[in-house]
Fold this sequence. Notes:
Layout: H1 2-10, E1 15-20, E2 23-27, H2 28-38, E3 43-48, E4 51-59, H3 63-72, E5 77-82, H4 86-91, E6 100-106, E7 124-130, E8 136-142, E9 147-153, H5 158-163, E10 167-173, H6 185-189, E11 193-196, H7 203-214, H8 227-243, E12 255-256, E13 264-265, H9 267-273, H10 287-291, H11 297-308, H12 314-329, H13 331-342, H14 347-355, H15 361-383, H16 390-399, H17 405-417, H18 438-465, E14 471-475, E15 479-485, H19 490-493, H20 497-500, E16 502-506, E17 510-514, H21 516-549, H22 551-577, E18 583-585, E19 589-595, H23 598-606, E20 614-619, E21 628-632, H24 639-655, E22 663-667, E23 671-676, H25 688-702, E24 708-712, H26 720-738, E25 741-745, H27 751-757, E26 761-771, E27 774-783, H28 791-797, H29 802-816, H30 821-824, H31 841-851, H32 860-874
Parallel strand pairs: 1-5, 7-10, 9-12, 10-11, 13-23, 18-22, 21-25, 21-26, 23-24, 24-25
Antiparallel strand pairs: 1-2, 2-4, 3-4, 5-6, 7-8, 8-9, 14-15, 15-17, 16-17, 19-20, 19-22, 26-27
Helix pairs in contact: 7-8, 11-22, 11-24, 12-22, 13-15, 13-22, 14-15, 14-22, 15-16, 15-17, 16-22, 18-21, 28-29, 31-32
Residues 639-640, 712-713 line the site of magnesium ion.
Amino acid sequence: MAQYLSIKSAQPDALLFFRMGDFYELFFEDAVTAARILDITLTARGEHEGVPIPMAGVPYHAAEGYLARLIKAGCRVAVCEQTESPAEAKKRGSKSIVRREIVRVVTPGTLTEETLLPARQGQALAALAFTGQGEAALAVCDVSTGLFELAALDPARIGDALLAWPLSELVISEGDRDRPALAGLREIAAAPVTERPARAATAKSGEAHLKEAFGVAALDGLGDFSKAELAAAGLLLDYVKLTQAGRPARLAVPRRAEPGGTLLIDPATRASLEIDRSYSRGREGTLLAAIDRTVTAPGARLLAANLARPSRDRSEIEARHDAVSFFAGERAALTDVRASLKSAPDLERACMRLALGRGGPRDLQALARALEAGMLSAAILKKSGAALPARLAAAADVLSLAGLGSLRALASDLAAALVETPPMFAREGGFVAPGWDAALDEVRSLRDGSRRVIAEMQGRYAEATGVSALKIKFNNVLGYFIEVPARLADPMLKPPLAQDFIHRQTMAGAVRFSTTELAELAGRISRAEEEARALEIAVFDGFCARVSAESETLAQVASALAEIDVAAANAVWADEAGAVRPVLEAAPVFEAKGLRHPVVEAALRREGKGFTANDLHLDAAARTAPRFLLVTGPNMAGKSTYLRQAALAVILAQAGCFVPATSMRLGLADRVFSRVGASDDLSRGRSTFMVEMVETAAILNQATPESFVILDEVGRGTATWDGLAIAWAAVEHLHEQTRCRAIFATHYHELTALASELPGAANASLKAREWKQDLIFLHEVQPGPADRSYGVQVARLAGLPRSAVTRAAQILKQLEAGPSASESLPLFAAAPVETENETPPEAEAVLAALRAIDPDALTPREALALLYELKALGKGES
Ligand code: ADP
Ligand code: MG
């Protein structure tokens, strides 16, 4: 227990998995927590200060599944292994206990196991640090792929930056716990927040950790980092090192995010556009789910990253578009490349596991297969007729492994050295193929030879003893032994047979023996097995060293594979969805013809319904088109869809994808804003009105002339005149001050007058037609304001009681009669609804027919005919 307590004290915040033989045991509070979460039995063992010690255990070979559940439940787990064998411990003295050490702390943000990580989703561990001057920076890494990025940060924009990553865990300094900038952070981050001592979050710590992790004496070669960036890097690397039990992180050299490099999307916009997470927090119904056609896990992660952090760098975006265009034009290459990529395993994560010493033979095989798939893809690309765009040419060069002889050799050696389906862990053995290692082949044949001799022995012994039922068997306790049925064993227990057959064990129905000859052979087999295992481990270690030496090139290969997968997948989606390449412009325009909403369109298609495409033309300079469009139309007419498809097109285009339109010209945006009025945010304890104000204020304060803004029914969450006033002011501000491209959907008809007065603004509306008292939505956008709101008809569609609809129509008529009429409205007085003519004519007809029936005079046949007649009357058909 003393050993346990001292190890536990090093990791008080983590559950301690304490290795004892074939189990990880948990004690005290840890046992109680784990038993509750894992639903395993809580037992007790010994006593501590007079009280029984609660204990729970999980078998070590099944530990990953239990780990996964604990991590999901938000726990961290310190894994403590035996670092010597019981035999070694005995050598140090008969009473010594086996040495144990924490080898790793498993946390939600530092996973590398295939079974613990969702394959198609990234994992981001982020650290946030501040300087005394109030500067902030964010360091982000993915320990399963080696990604490492640093960025300066506006302390007011922390949420924007964090939500751009698939955040699994956030590290902050204890000293920053109460910083106003971090208020509400835990909810925004939607990931566990870990606090670390303040001394880790300093520029000095960052410098030391960076130097250690990259083995450099000075930072100059890595880049020019600010104090805040260094502090964030220090906090992050210090934590990663802690979780790796003191070994420094294996990460790529940190990339410094360019301040203006990405399209900024704030949390409210992300949520309302459902880019990679829907309102219900899942993937379904998102833009990402609608367009993702990737065939590899790293490709899926890259596409998700592109959509989550679209670019603002024109040449980068053009390069991505070029690659998609290539595949769109080369159908044969597209099909073949995707077929070869399909068999490419997750190279990024396999390499990282090997580098961290957590890999196994299966990871080596993954690496070999990925390299093969890469070479095949490169060959397909190079022999396709059309000229390769620069991005794909570079990827193909890397993947062909031209000039990378050692990597080529590694790939072919692995293919020759590994069996078809290797085990997960090297210690299981049996993964080196015959013919690869002569020494290994020799011990294996020795072992197999001895096994054969044993098999022959059985016949020989049966003859010698006259017991034909004699068998030679094997178990883990006795090893090899001879077994005969108990009733035939007697002669063997007496001389002369007893001279050769040594009694081992008497069972209920059988007696077990050994012989010197058998013991010798068994010894030979077990020595050979041990030797074989050692030789296999040596082969494995040799390959790991070669992989480690190639880690940089392997990372390039991995990203080339992902890049090709994404470009090809985007071409496939573009073809399915009828998407085209957007033309990037220097002018701040947005001009789309036949634009569609990719998610709504796909959903409608599944129901067999069509989607009405619409045009949109905006120009922030208000030269070729208005910069501000005010969209009106009845509820359900398609206003929200029209607004969102525009914002999504900006995101798709800048992510490097095509856009669902017949043509599109786009001046790159620096930020996209989307706000939906009347969204309920009561869970965060703010009234809807407050939320709307905060969100609208954020746009008015942050948007620039390059921004793209959609405002959907802002001002709706409040009393009519307040809402109208706010909407009015927002329209004026966006038009006069911000002067950016913006679309505003509103049910405030009054605003349409404003739009026709502002020089850079215009009205548009969604067509609807009344037909037989019903409203037909054409989902078609036309210039000019909607002529009326149609609210009453929509209410009827929604199934409001007929009397309420009639009453609403009355009130509407009075309202429309003039503004003064509203004062005379008996809004709160119970207004009796006229009911005289309320019964519809069909009902009258049915009633009349019913009254005329004499049931006693009807034959069954007539009754049936009458029933049909009544039914027809009810439908108004006669
Ligand atoms: P509004 O914001 O005007 O109330 P929405 O944009 O929410 O209307 O659209 C309501 C529904 O109409 C959508 O869920 C969709 O099914 C359908 N819809 C919207 N736009 C289109 C369109 N362009 N083509 C076909 N159906 C559409
Ligand atoms: Mg709407």
